[in-house]
Amino acid sequence: MGGFPYASVFSRHLPPTRPLHRRLVEAVRARVVGQDHALHHLMVTLLAGGHALLEGVPGLAKTLLARSVAEALDVSFRRIQFTPDLLPADILGSMVFQKETGTFVPAPGPIFANLVLADEINRAPPKVQSALLEAMEEGEVTLGGETFPLREPFMVLATQNPLEHHGTYPLAEAQVDRFLVHIRMSYPTPAEEREILRCVARHRPRRVPPVVEVEELLSARREVGEVYVDDRVQAYIVSLLEATRHPQAVGLDELAPWIALGVSPRGGIALQRAARAQAWLSGRDHVLPDDVKAMVPAVFRHRIVPSLEGEAEGVDPDRLVGSILRAVPVP
Predict the structure, then answer these.
(1) In whole angstroms, what separates CA 124 from the centre of its chain?
(2) Mean pLDDT of the 12-39 span
(3) Is the separation of the CB atoms in 296 and 271 below 8 Å?
(4) Assign residue 8 a region: left if phi > 0, alpha if psi is -120 to 50, beta otherwise?
(5) Closest Cα to residue 47, out of 68, 14, 73?
(6) Rounded to an integer, what distance in angstroms lies between the CA atom of residue 98 and that of residue 111?
């Protein structure tokens, strides 16, 4: 669960500068205490049009945070509890026979919501995981030979418990790569813990009022897509990618035995998308290197695969990312 000292500007919790961001943060904070780091990364994911993998021990308000964001956006929300006996049809839907007409009609599954919480995704078998991740990647589902587009906005928020491994099916690297960011949630501070107890004692709001319209979010996404990325910033992203694949090139010979697989080209695309969203949330129309550095941990930590030697040494991907960020020159 550990972080890293340089981890990003989020340790200071950037103040909301955009009206959309400010309204959503204020609405969610009325119900969820702390977890500003996770909330900000969810905003980045929404604006970048991606999906998020949320990791944390039970009881950290992962479900409450996801539901609160959906209510603030006034979009449909479905929670799927992943279990070993789950079937792809339980997620995607199926064709149902109608006796009155003698025909089969599609019965859409919970994947057709705007925000889908895939709770404990690593408890379902690979076939189910693949069905979900294919829908995430393609943005559509095929039922009975007919293709149905998923609703916009569409985001999957998958959770997993980092401590439990019994009865789980770890996600394959190719599947994990589909998530734009990997968010790690930590325990609240003592002050936040006291506030949580006070909120429970005085009955916190049962629902978060809608404060952002869907069209406003989609318009913000279009603006994020137009945020300017200079050639030097793109070269910086490429240098970071190369450093995960060939750490010797930046003088990190000691990391080479610890890394089995570096960040994929999809990871570079994800980093640029996330950096654009971060720049937009900061009130700018161009990406700075600091925007890239701020998003590298969340974008890279699930894409760097430690080697057997690295796992034996207990090397955390965040430690590798920290060394790489310090070694690669900033333009």
Answers:
(1) 19
(2) 81
(3) yes
(4) left
(5) 73
(6) 22
102-129 b/e (C-beta count within 10 Å ≥ 16 → b): eeeebeebbbbbbbbbbbbbbbbeeebb
Residues whose CB falls within 8 Å of the CB of residue 246, separated by 6 or more in sequence, listed in order: 256, 262
Select from 1.10.8.80, 3.50.50.60, 3.40.50.880, 1.10.287.1490 the CATH code of 226-331: 1.10.8.80
Kindly report, residue by residue over 49-63, the tens digit of the pLDDT. Answer: 999 999 888 888 888
CATH 3.40.50.300 domain span(s) along the chain? 1-222
Packing angle, helices 231-245 and 317-327, rounded to 10:
130
Residue where the block lists tokens 């000292």: 5
pLDDT band at 7 (very low <50, low <70, confident <90, very high): very low
For 207-223, the pLDDT digits (tens) are 888 999 999 999 999 99
CA distance 150 to 139: 6
Amino acid occupying residue 125: P
Name 229's Cβ contacts closer than 8 Å, sequence gap at least 6. Answer: 272, 275, 276, 286, 287
Residue ranges of E strands in 40-102: 52-55, 77-81, 93-98
Placement of tokens 């955009």 in the chain: 18
Instruction: Answer whether residue 298 shows pLDDT above 90.
Output: yes
Residues 112 and 101: their CA atoms lie apart, in Å, by 25
* CA–CA dist 309, 92 (Å, integer): 39
Of the pLDDT bands very low, low, confident and very high (cuts 50, 70, 90), residue 14 is low
Q: Which amino acid is at 44?
A: V
